[in-house]
Structure prediction request, 71 residues.
Amino acid sequence: IELLNDNAAMVNAIMHCQLKEQTEVAKLMYTAVLLKSAQGWKIRHEHESPVFETFKNMLKRMDEQSKTINQ
Prediction:
């Protein structure tokens, strides 16, 4: 967590996700901007994107599935 000022912070993390039926662990980069209000800290913006290795594996799987469908 990086405090940007007294009322704003940014969070950067790498999330590891795995579906029950999958052996592969997907890695996602996560960023969130939080703002402090009278009610406490609230997420103002968040974004997730796959780490390149995960993205490459997703594309490979999609390509393999499309070849199976088109046979």
Notes: The longest helix spans residues 52-69. The two ends are 49 Å apart (CA to CA). The beta strands are 2-5, 8-17, 26-37, 40-50. The first strand starts at residue 2 and ends at 5.
